[in-house]
Amino acid sequence: MDSRELFQRRAARAMPQDQILGVFIEGTITSLSEEFSPAVEEAVRKAQQRAKGWTPFFRYPAAEWLQLMDVAATTAMRESRVSYGKALERMGQGVGRYMFRTPLAKTFHTLVGKDPQRMVSTSVFSAKAVCTWGNRQYEKVSPTQARLRLRDEFMGPEWVQGFYRELFRLSPGVSPSSTVEDYEEPGMYFAVRFSW
User: Fold this and answer.
1) In the prediction, which pLDDT does 51 show?
2) For residues 111 and 184, what is the distance between their CA atoms, to the nearest angstrom?
């Protein structure tokens, strides 16, 4: 579904007020070696323009992060022979894995518990703490289904599905599947229905 052209169309819409926490950027970059290869992480580190790196709780322009994501996805395509969309999905999983290992995430998980509904509903608020863009709405569809509606989302459906796939791993015994609904190009408006 996703492509470089669609991703770049989304990234071109990033405004100066669209920002993201440094810890999320560093998590994205650091997870590339584990998710793909050291060559992908190295390519992104060479492309970054901040000599000092990313201070965890400072906010940075989303445009810079999106530019690095593009470098990562195109390098992963070449190095790992995956599609651009699959590279984005795996990056979502990788940063999810990185973030869910942090002490803050472990505290969050302790408070929220292992209920998939609660994890998805609470993630809407967590996203606001990490990034300033987007509108996310949670909807309980049934006891074993949830829908997440996203508007003004830069990462697109593949990345979101990868990230949430990693989130569901925190809930033992849950085997999630996801379906994209109500998709509008270039992928800034869509819904993802999760089932388990």
Assistant:
1) 67
2) 35
Q: What is the pTM of this model?
A: 0.93
The amino acid present at 23, given as its one-letter code, is V
Residue 104 has pLDDT above 80, yes or no: no
- For 156-194, the pLDDT digits (tens) are 999 999 999 999 998 888 999 999 999 999 999 999 999
DSSP per position, the chain:
---HHHHHHHHTT--TT-EEEHHHHHHHHHHHHHHT-HHHHHHHHHH---TT---TTSEEEHHHHHHHHHHHHHHHHHHH---HHHHHHHHHHHHHHHHHTSHHHHHHHHHH-S-HHHHHHHHHHHHHHHBS--EEEEEEEETTEEEEEEES-SSHHHHHHHHHHHHHTTSTT---EEEEEEEETTTTEEEEEEE-
pLDDT in tens, 115-144: 999 999 999 999 999 999 999 999 999 999
CB 62 within 8 A of CB 14: yes
Name the residue with tokens 């599905």.
161
How far apart CA 102 and CA 84 sit, in angstroms, is: 28
Fill in the amino acid letter for 79: E
